[in-house]
Design goal:
2 domains; Large ribosomal subunit protein mL44; mitochondrion; Double Stranded RNA Binding Domain; 43% helix; 3 strands
């Protein structure tokens, strides 16, 4: 790709990546190819790199909290804007899923 950028420019290299590399990812699960051990710390690192405040975690929805199979939805907010939301069987699991 680097040689293509030098010989033909960034636009041509971008087309190559789109046509030949990204097309190979269709139907594949990103989490199978790139396991993220600690998604929240990765998110915090990326927000810090962009000079944004730390994410604020809020419970947005819950269903069946007094049953055997509860579902919680946690939203991650940055500058009072929802940046991610994730479900989980516990609040901690939902927070981790939202950070992914």
């Amino acid at each position: 790709v680097g040689a293509l950028v030098q010989s033909s420019g960034t636009q041509r290299a971008g087309l190559f990546i789109r046509d030949f590399l990204i097309s190979q990812l269709i139907g594949k699960d990103l989490f199978d190819m790139w396991p993220v051990a600690d998604p929240m710390s990765l998110l915090v690192q990326e927000l810090s790199r962009r000079n944004l405040p730390l994410p604020e975690t809020r419970l947005t929805r819950e269903c069946g909290s007094s049953t055997v199979l509860p579902v919680y939805f946690v939203g991650l907010y940055c500058n009072k804007k929802l940046i991610a939301e994730g479900p989980g069987e516990s609040v901690n699991a939902a927070e981790e899923e939202a950070a992914r």
